[in-house]
Amino acid sequence: MATFFGEVVVAPSRAGVDDEESAEEAREETPEDREIRRELEKKREIDVLWTLKSGASTESSADEPFVCSKFIVAIGHNAAAFLSSFILDSVCWEVVGVVKLWNEWCRTSNTTNVLPTDSFCLFYRLISDPTVLLCQCSCYVAEDQQFQWLEKVFGCMRKEDLQVTVLSTCPVADYKTQESTLTLPSPFLKALKTKEFKEEVCCPLLEQPNIVRDLPAA
Amino acid sequence: MFVPCDRGGGSASSDFKGFTLLMPAVSVGNVGQLATDLVISTLNMTKVGYFYTDCLVPMVGNNPYATAEENSMELSINAEVYSLPSKKLVVLQIRSPFIKNKYRPFCETLLSWVKSSKCARVVLLSSSHAYQRDDEQLLGTPLRYLLTPDLEKAVGGLMQELNWKEMEKVAAYPGINDTEKVLHIPGGGITKLLFTESCSKGIQMAVLLKFCSEGDNIPDAFALVNYLNEWLQLVKSEVNTSSQWKIPSSWRLLFGNGLPPALF
């Protein structure tokens, strides 16, 4: 594979494990390596901070899991903006939590006073029905942090009778279809649902071979 | 790690004692995974569970083996387990790459699950970079096998009868010292790690791999699955060796969408 004349680039393998990476791992890890790796892992840890009724902030994994009937998660700038424009307001919703994380693409803060252009991940609760939770996540959650995000957020909730709705967007160019995406009327909605979801879905289901990845998939 | 599906069969459907576990390594050309897709699709295997793991990149979609409207709506994720008790076969399909630094923990957890579920043996489908072959490997069949010592005792003779070629070892320090030989599977993903760990843990494992390059790897998948079939006899061998395997519906549009008419 050549880029400009004379330069040969090693194509990344779909195997996912580069030979250099596996050779590196084969080396014995020195205490310094271990320390560096631990520091890096600590830096990439996710903190979920809940603001309780009393107004005091506390660390994640509250003793009592929240009772939650509906949890709506909006992932990405577009979905977060949709919630800001059409759903959220300061009268009906109150901020109850925030996720603090860092990765190469973004850093969130633990302030709840955010601008639409910031990267943030906030939790809101419907004042009239505190079992309805909403999450606006406009920051990018990296591959190695997605599982942690999932466990830490859902670990705080009771999962019985919980209905989860995930809102997200994908570029039309990524949509696989027999016709060209140029002629497709966009934007359009597609859904994926578990077999436990018995209600009517408001749009067609996502056809094979399309898939969803990253945090919405997790 | 293994989470069984809720099905009428209950725990009976996740009893794999004495079964053969077939699984792919995520490797060059995704050949192992494509071959596994062919096995699951052709034998119409039933999903019995999945792996709940933080080691693979998350993904989800609708049933990749859907044949009709009715069965197209089941969700499918990155690591799922299918079973066919009549052939004592259990298949693990992996659909996404490993997260950085997570492939080792995955291998450890996988092998301890193999031991605890008492699978009789593991067959790993894999591939290796074709451009790394030496002069001798360029001639003849591009298919190779490997057996752990425990499985060698059981089926080594059969491999001789089938006239299969064992994967060659290469010099550890080429050009300097040709006597010390090591196993080298470039582009094979976790193949070498799983194989060496199985050798040391006394697990019966066979690796079946094909030399290939990235590109349209469907023919490579057919070659590998027919190679597997020579041994395990999963389907009856036909004269036209590609017609006995059913291509899953998710293989549509592997190379992009239709063209916009405005292009012409």
Question: Tags for this entry?
Answer:
heterodimer; A: 218 residues; alpha/beta; 7-stranded mixed sheet; 5 helices; globular; B: 264 residues; 8-stranded mixed sheet; two-stranded antiparallel ribbon; 25% strand; proteasome binding (chain A); Proteasome_assmbl_chp_1 (chain A); chaperone (chain A); Proteasome assembly chaperone 1 (chain A); Proteasome assembly chaperone 2 (chain B)
Characterise this structure.
In chain A, 22% of the residues lie in helices and 21% in strands. Chain A has 218 residues and is α/β, with parallel strands linked by helices. Chain A has helices at residues 19-26, 31-43, 77-86, 143-154, 214-217, and strands at 47-51, 57-58, 70-75, 93-100, 121-126, 129-137, 163-168, 211-213. The two termini of chain A are 34 Å apart. The longest helix of chain B is centred in the C-terminal third of the chain and has 15 residues, at 218-232. Chain B is globular and about 60 Å long. The interface between A and B is large, with 41 and 52 residues. Chain A: This is Proteasome assembly chaperone 1. Chain A: One of its GO terms (molecular function) is proteasome binding. Chain A: Belongs to the PSMG1 family.
